[in-house]
Amino acid sequence: MSDWIELNEGNGLFHSDPKKQRAQLKADGRTLNGSLSIADDGALEFTTDRRRSNPVDFEAHWNGPKPAKISITTGLPVFSNENSLKVGFLTAAYGLWFKNFGYSFVLQSSLDIVRQQILNPDTELMYWNYLIEVPTREIANPCIGLMRFRTDYFPIALIYDHLVVFPSPKLPHPSSTSPMQMSKKVMSFSDQIASRYQHRCVGPAVLICDGQEIVNPDLIQNATIPPQYSWVDRWD
Questions:
Q1: Could you say which of 53, 79, 105 is where a domain stops?
Q2: Residue 132: how many CB atoms within 10 A of its CB?
Q3: Distance in angstroms (rounded) separating the CA atoms of residues 140 and 158
Q4: Which residues lie across from 24 on neighbouring strands?
Q5: H-type alpha helices, 11-81
Q6: Domain range spanning residue 189?
Q7: 99-135 pLDDT, tens per residue?
Q8: What is the pTM of this model?
């Protein structure tokens, strides 16, 4: 996920770190590894890497006759496995909710499928579309929030230009609906509120919006301290 963001942030074709590139030059049966970059004049430049190339091919290429034909190939592994990229966003969003809301969020049986998906990034276990691309970066920094699909509410996280939708205690995923029937709200944790949730909550915390449970730590059984309830009202 970080590699994907780096490529988009830099508005470039290649990673700025040559070690992350998969570029090869082939000429006269010889193969040299290196990296690609865009020169100041817009030209495409290939820089050979002696340490990552066969020393015999490297010396023959630079000290022998110049080849009449050269081919250069490259690849972007970050785009080769779309499911792993999606799970990267899911993992970051899961950690973001834990950072802000504490153990009350992760101790929910409704998130079992999320944890299974994180542990198995190469297998599509969450078959519904939990990752939504937004047209532009609406939020400068990653944050958490809520999203309403018609009359159903779900926890979300906004990371870069993607929105991650989690299951709720009520429903495993939203039903299909039109964008006109969807809206989102970013949640702000001030210092006074954060102290209740960020790993320091004295009891299970339940979050409710319009009468629907958004967070309900049902894996905490027989809690000695009654749950703390928080309500999100005045949805705009």
A1: 79
A2: 16
A3: 10
A4: 33, 73
A5: 55-63
A6: 82-232
A7: 888 888 999 999 999 999 999 998 999 989 899 888 7
A8: 0.73
